[in-house]
């Protein structure tokens, strides 16, 4: 019984060393092959995400890994022989405002038709949240509201006002209309709400803090919301009483999205849930008895670039958000924080090449069904102090339409 054991243990040492020397390379080769196969399998099963990298990584969500960013489709730049100054996305339609005050509606069913006429260049253009009512205001403080479902209905008109005579030459900056088509909120030097049915004097909204210059204005589910660079003010749209205020972590450009506010700073964007802030006491005056409201809950944030350049928020449909930076659109999934893709904006060299003009003003509109995004780039002249007519003549406009992505 002991023979075989002694025979094995008594083998030639040189032969044992040779066997071990031959087995080591084989083991290393097998391990290397296994590692290579594993990496390949990982690459096949988990394809790399577009846009991930510095500040772009996030946990996997339900958004497909393969994402193709939508390409811009050029829109009309001239209607009825006049330059288009503003574009808005409606429900299966597009609205155009021109340099001479013409307001036009275009759809596949009716084609292009004029629905209102103002006196000066259209400065702001906005649909209500259903896409039925279209409001437009020009630089001469004229307001027109049209019912797009009933083209034969009369256009409602109103002369806009300013709160202080020192701002008499200030054109309207923001515009919002409710779903009844009877109330319009307009930002000039302050925010005024106009009742178009009974022609009462405008109701000037009460501010008790310096957050009175909004980047966006909207009627959302019984609320009138003004999103500024420093805070979000929420009024009850029926009583027009300020009852909620939220503060972002830092100042930045604001855009009202799907029940939240999209902010853009330098290279960074985030979403602020203004409804998470406790309602204000009445009257909403900060002080020992009425402490300053706490910060609204930040839902998500994303670094979209390492460049120090202003980020302009454009749209948020509750799933995918879009922002512009350096003439490039970035789309990301707000649930998983994943950057989905980038789309360059083909702006003409007259705006992008000149450093004094490279900071174009961008205006956007997301259709009520969240299927169409329109983007307008306004490239003004490099010189300042020009006469309004000369400045208008040197301003160029670029308009695009995007099929808004869906996850």
Automatic annotation (TrEMBL):
<dbReference type="InterPro" id="IPR011047">
    <property type="entry name" value="Quinoprotein_ADH-like_sf"/>
</dbReference>
<feature type="transmembrane region" description="Helical">
    <location>
        <begin position="26"/>
        <end position="46"/>
    </location>
</feature>
<keyword id="KW-1133">Transmembrane helix</keyword>
<keyword id="KW-0812">Transmembrane</keyword>
<keyword id="KW-0472">Membrane</keyword>
<dbReference type="InterPro" id="IPR015943">
    <property type="entry name" value="WD40/YVTN_repeat-like_dom_sf"/>
</dbReference>
<protein>
    <submittedName>
        <fullName>Uncharacterized protein</fullName>
    </submittedName>
</protein>
């Amino acid at each position: 019984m002991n023979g075989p054991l002694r025979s094995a243990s008594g083998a030639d040492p040189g032969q044992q060393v040779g066997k071990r020397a031959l087995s080591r390379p084989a083991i290393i080769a097998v391990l290397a092959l296994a590692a290579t196969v594993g990496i390949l399998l990982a690459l096949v099963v988990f394809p790399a995400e577009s846009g991930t990298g510095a500040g772009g990584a996030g946990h996997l969500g339900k958004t497909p890994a393969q994402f193709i960013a939508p390409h811009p489709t050029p829109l009309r730049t001239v209607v009825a022989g006049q330059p288009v100054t503003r574009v808005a996305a409606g429900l299966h339609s597009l609205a155009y405002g021109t340099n001479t005050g013409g307001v036009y509606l275009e759809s596949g069913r009716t084609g292009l038709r004029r629905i209102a006429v103002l006196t000066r260049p259209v400065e702001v253009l906005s649909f209500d949240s259903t896409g039925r009512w279209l409001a437009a205001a020009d630089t001469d403080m004229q307001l027109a509201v049209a019912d797009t479902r009933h083209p034969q209905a009369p256009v409602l008109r109103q002369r806009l006002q300013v709160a202080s005579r020192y701002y008499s030459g200030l054109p309207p900056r923001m515009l919002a209309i409710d779903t009844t088509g009877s109330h319009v909120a307009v930002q000039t030097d302050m925010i005024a709400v106009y009742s178009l049915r009974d022609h009462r004097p405008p109701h000037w909204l009460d501010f008790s803090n310096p957050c009175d210059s909004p980047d966006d204005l909207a009627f959302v589910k019984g609320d009138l919301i003004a999103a500024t660079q420093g805070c979000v003010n929420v009024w009850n749209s029926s009583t027009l009483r300020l009852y909620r205020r939220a503060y972002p972590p830092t100042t930045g450009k604001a855009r009202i999205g799907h029940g939240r506010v999209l902010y853009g700073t330098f290279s960074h964007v985030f979403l602020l849930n203004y409804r998470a802030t406790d309602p204000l006491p009445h009257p909403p005056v900060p002080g020992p008895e009425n402490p300053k409201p706490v910060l609204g809950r930040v839902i998500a944030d994303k670094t979209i670039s390492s460049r120090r350049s202003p980020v302009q928020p454009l749209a948020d449909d509750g799933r995918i958000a879009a922002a512009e930076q350096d003439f490039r659109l970035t789309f990301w999934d707000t649930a998983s924080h994943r950057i989905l893709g980038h789309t360059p904006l083909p702006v003409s060299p007259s705006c992008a090449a000149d450093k004094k003009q490279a900071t174009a003003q961008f205006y956007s509109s997301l259709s009520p069904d969240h299927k169409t995004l329109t983007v307008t780039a306004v490239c003004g002249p490099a010189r300042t102090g020009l006469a309004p007519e000369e400045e208008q003549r040197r301003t160029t406009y670029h308009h695009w339409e995007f099929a808004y992505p869906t996850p």
